[in-house]
Amino acid sequence: MTFHPYLTCLQPYPFEKLRQLFSGVTPNSAYQAISLGIGEPKHPTPALIEDALRNNLAGLASYPLTAGSEALRRSIANWIARRYDIPAPDFATEILPVNGSREALFALAQTVVNPAACKDGKPLIMCPNPFYQIYEGAAYLSGAEPYFVNADPARNFAPDYSQVPEHIWQRVQLLFVCSPGNPTGAVLQLHDWKELFELSDRYGFVIAADECYSEIYFKTDAPLGAMQAARQLGRDYQRLISLSSLSKRSNVPGMRSGFVAGDAAIMKQFLLYRTYHGSAMSPMIQAASVVAWDDEIHVQENRDKYRQKFAQITPMLEQVLDVQLPDAAFYLWAKVDHLQGISDTEFARQLYERYHVTVLPGSYLAREAHGINPGANRIRMALVADVAECLEAAQRIVAFCHELKGQ
Description:
The chain contains 14 helices and 13 strands. The protein has 407 residues and is of the alpha/beta class.
């Protein structure tokens, strides 16, 4: 029996590595388990979305169109216009609903990567480092290779693209951007987008902007979006694709509902690919998605919960960890090696053993590139549970850090 040859390139997911790290460890039974490891929203699903699901069960009797309903595409286009203060994209040619941004990120690479067009080895898909592991899998299974550009703490964790050699840019066919970033929470600014657009113009690669954390932010101004940046710079959406999701915005990860928007020429080919891929969204999910995209009250309430949570917990952890409030998203990205030189993996293992709190080692979210693993000696904490549980976790982490300092 034979399998796809590039499957051997895929690494275990970070949570499988974490399971192996904790293998054989018995956590302290004096504490209830608290996990800050997985970025899965835990706030309640809004009632208006649950009601919409219950009220549209009749849609299960019909095969859905891959392109989605006109009502959903119009709803998404109108949301983009309101959220980013730009003209609404053409719902007929510039919008596609998808079953969550994760599957669309993967499928997009299958659509835009052309191995035959690269004369000097395999084509490259450029990724930030640390990164969402789907980017890497999408690269390998599209016949490309990932090329990692390390996040620079001195640049608010933005990758320094000026360090990328000319011969690398000539092989890049797709560039993944994550803003707000996972795990850093950093948001790209207009000058960052200007640089990326100019590079795309010069070398002809597609930009895929992963913006699934765009609605969880802590400052007055909402994060700048890719399509918004293009408009502010007087551009159209050529070679630009934006992806977003209801999962974090509306606390419905189980709905698997998102969208892809941008370059109409790419969208046309992406729709063709998806027609064969069999990835149409359920009619009841589409109906509930319209309700979700059309309402901002539940989004503001959700954002307020995160703001209150981070306002309480960040100062506590700042006393013992090298950490600060991020621009956006629901993660804290903390440096830990000042604590007796402990590694991120050992920090996570000992914290789990002594205090039954799970955090994710930063090295699991990155790859060694250009001589370093930029996630090493950092941990990611997902503050997705309610305030009381997150406060309890923070108190245990503070106690654990004091123990380490006393060793």
